[in-house]
Amino acid sequence: MIHIVFNEADKPVLNAAMEMDESFAAEIFQVKDDYAVGPLVNIFTAEGMDARKQWWQEVLTGGDFEIKPGAEEVDDTALVAQLKERLASNEEEFIWIWAAANKHDVSGYYWFMSQFKEYAGRIFILYLNNLPFFNEKGNIFYPEWLHTIPAKEFLKAKKLAREITLSEFEVEPDEWTRICNENKAVRLLEGGKKLIQQEVDFYDVELKKFITKDWQKASKIINQFLNKAKDTTGDAFLLWRLKAILSFGQYDMQGELKNMKDFEVKSKSAEPEMVAE
Q1: What gap in Å lies between CA 154 and CA 15, rounded to an integer?
Q2: For a surface tag, which of 6, 31, 144, 221 has the fewest beta carbons within 10 Å of its beta carbon?
Q3: 2-61 pLDDT, tens per residue?
Q4: Alpha helix (H) residue ranges in the chain
Q5: Cβ atoms of 268 and 252 closer than 8 Å
Q6: pTM of the model
Q7: CATH of domain 204-267
Q8: Per-residue pLDDT, 73
Q9: Would the CATH topology of 2-180 be identical to that of 204-267?
Q10: Class (C level, CATH) for 2-180
Q11: Residue 63, SS3?
Q12: How big is the chain by its Cα radius of gyration, in Å?
C-alpha cells in the first residue's frame, strides 16, 4: 500500500493514525506543487512543465519563499514515475489517495489520477467531502483540510477508501484537460469535485480591502486576508500579488519590496490642497 497526500501537515496526523491501527500502515508520499494556482497548459509535456516551473520562479523570486541555491526542487513528475515503477514491478501494490474538500487537494487529485489510468483497479480515493468528524473537544465539524482531523478520527476515515472506477478514469482526466486548456491561473472548488477558474488577479480585490490608511507590514495584510477572506490561497502567491498591486502606484509603500516583513503599505496620502495667494 502507498498513501498519497497533498500537504506536508497531513503526514504527521496520518502517521499517528497508522500507529493506532497498523492494518493500513504504509509509506506516505506527498504531491508538493499547488495545482490550484498557476499555468497548466500542456502540463504533462516537458514544455508545459517548464513553463510552470518558470512561473513559480517568477512568483517566488525576491521574497520569503525564494528557492535557495542547492535547495531540493519540487519534482512531482519524478514521484509519478517512481510510483508507476513500483506498481509495474509489484502487481499486489496499490495506492490510496487522501483528499479533503478544498481546491488544493482536488486540483492535485485531478493532476495525479489522470496519469494512472493504466492501473485502474489499484488506485483508491478517500475523498472527505462534506463528512462530519469530531474535533479534539468532541464537537462535530466538517474539515476542509486533512491535518485538522484528529488522528483517531482517521480510523473512521479509512473505511471510506474506494476504488476509482473505470468511468471516473474516463471522465475525470478529460475534465482536467479541459481545465488545463482554459489557460487561467486560479482554481476554486465549487462543490463536490467541480473546479471553476478565475484570472490571475482574482484575489486582488479582496486583498486590497486589508490595506488601510495606516502603515502595515505586508505580513499583517496577508495574515488578515488569510484569516478573514472567504476564498484564500497560499501566502507566497499572495505576496506576489500584493507586489503586483503596488506596481501600479496606487498605494504608498516604504521599505524594501522583498520579504513580507521588509516593507509596509498604506492607502495613498491625499495630495495637499493648493492655497490661493
Answers
A1: 10
A2: 144
A3: 999 999 999 999 999 999 988 888 999 999 999 999 999 999 999 999 999 999 999 999
A4: 10-20, 46-60, 76-89, 103-113, 154-157, 166-181, 204-208, 218-228, 235-246
A5: yes
A6: 0.92
A7: 1.10.10
A8: 75
A9: no
A10: alpha beta
A11: coil
A12: 22
Give residue 276's region: left, alpha or beta (phi > 0; psi -120 to 50).
Answer: beta
Q: What are phi and psi of 169, to 5 degrees?
A: -70, -20
pLDDT tops 70 at residue 276: no
To which residue does cell 514544455 refer?
A: 47
Domain boundary assignment for the chain: 2-180, 204-267
Cell of 60: 517566488
Residue 68 has pLDDT above 80, yes or no: no
Positions of E strands within 91-191: 95-100, 123-128, 133-134, 140-141, 162-163, 186-191
H/E stretch holding 216 reads strand 216-217
Cα–Cα dist 109/4, whole Å? 9
* Residue 257: CB atoms within 10 Å: 16
Report the distance separating Cα 7 and Cα 29, nearest Å: 10
Show the cell assigned to 149: 482531523
Residues 233 and 185: their CA atoms lie apart, in Å, by 12
Cα angle at 103 between 63 and 195, to 5 degrees?
A: 125
Please state, rounded to an integer, the average pLDDT across all residues of the chain: 92
Report CA-CA distances (Å) from 90 to 24, 74, 112, 115: 18, 26, 20, 18
Q: How far is CA 16 from CA 21, 133, 178, in A?
A: 9, 17, 38
Across the strands, what pairs with 37?
A: 186
Sequence-distant (≥ 6) Cβ neighbours of residue 97 within 8 angstroms: 4, 109, 112, 113, 123, 124, 125, 126, 164
Residue 119 carries which DSSP code? G
Please name the amino acid found at residue 163: E
Cell of 74: 519540487
